[in-house]
Amino acid sequence: MSDLLALDGVCTNYGKIRILRDVSLTVGEGEVVALLGLNGAGKTTTMRSILGLTPPLAGTVKYAGQNITGWPAYRVARLGVGYVPEGRRMFKDLTTLENLQLAENGRGGAWTIPRVFEHLPKLAELRGRKAGRLSGGEQEMLAIGRALVANPHLLLVDEPSQGLAPLIVEDVYRILGELKHTGVAILIVEQNALLALKIADRAYVLDSGRIVHSGAAAELAADRDRIRMLMGLDVAAAGT
Ligand SMILES: Nc1ncnc2c1ncn2[C@@H]1O[C@H](COP(=O)(O)OP(=O)(O)O)[C@@H](O)[C@H]1O
Ligand SMILES: [Mg+2]
After folding, report:
1. N or C terminus: which one in the chain shows less Cβ crowding within 10 Å?
2. What is the per-residue pLDDT for 71?
3. What is the CATH number of the domain that holds 20?
4. pTM for the complete prediction?
5. Centroid of ligand 1 to alpha carbon of 17 (angstroms)
């Protein structure tokens, strides 16, 4: 599998404080990769480093073989990288449909608003509702829909389960699983390891800004002791 995304030796600071230390990871075409780690491990900073929101101080970010290190976010997005940020960040006064319309970038592609409504029928029902009045789960689906209408080849998804009730988390993950079958590559950040491992092909674990584990998702999912060692007891117990 050829690498769609490749980080090599990425070091990223906030001010003088080093957050990411020598982070290397890859996502292949159509592959789903989980980036796991406890709160504060550097998962969001990794996404921000890829998107040029917090440019790396050292190391390289390559997309489809091209060095895009530190490129501004709009240019990275134009290459086909979609982002579903932590906390969703909708335009709260705009309706579901208006949020989707704003996200369409006119590049064309398979994902249109009608197709998003087909895959996420709940959003079709809520097309006229203001985003600020949607539940957390509905907002997460809108955030995914919004990323899709830009027709990404790679989707960066930051903590989709955060703050959602378990049943809704299942829905969100079902949709991410479906996306996988449409050929979109996904880098998914999660604190809830077992959840992300269910749909991922491979996984990395971050601890204090360093990659401390990488391997097949199924292997890690089957090794609760390992997860406990890497991420603590609560995480290993969650989702069982
Ligand atoms: N804007 C910021 N300024 C300074 N430090 C930050 C900022 N954002 C995050 N951090 C720190 O960077 C570390 C990693 O944060 P983050 O990447 O958000 O972790 P995660 O997403 O894994 O929870 C944490 O110690 C956090 O406190
Ligand atoms: Mg985070």
Report:
1. C
2. 96
3. 3.40.50.300
4. 0.92
5. 10
Does residue 40 lie within any of the structural domains?
yes
Q: From 148, 150, 174, 149, select the one nearest 161 (Cα to Cα).
A: 174
- Residue 159 CA: which ligand 1 atom is closest? 21
Q: Residue 65 C-alpha to ligand 1 middle, in angstroms?
A: 28
Residue 117 inside a domain? The answer is no
* CB 19 near ligand 1, within 6 Å: yes
Q: Is 158 in the pocket of ligand 1 (CB under 6 A)?
A: no
Residues 163-188 pLDDT 10s: 888 888 888 898 899 888 888 999 99
Rounded to the nearest angstrom, the distance between the alpha carbon of 121 and the centre of ligand 2 is 28
Q: Is 233 within a domain?
A: yes
> Is the per-residue pLDDT at 235 higher than 50?
yes
As for how many domains the chain has, the answer is 1
The verdict on residue 196 lying in a domain is yes
Rounded to whole angstroms, the Cα distance separating 107 from 150 reads 7
Choose among 175, 171, 203, 172: nearest CA to 187.
203
Give the number of the atom of ligand 1 that is nearest the alpha carbon of residue 158.
21
Q: Which domain holds residue 234?
A: 1-80+154-162+188-240
Residue 2 Cβ contacting ligand 1 at under 6 Å: no
Q: Could you report the per-residue pLDDT of 35-52, keeping only the tens digit for each?
A: 999 999 999 999 999 999
Determine the Cα–Cα distance for residues 129 and 121; give it in Å rounded to an integer.
14
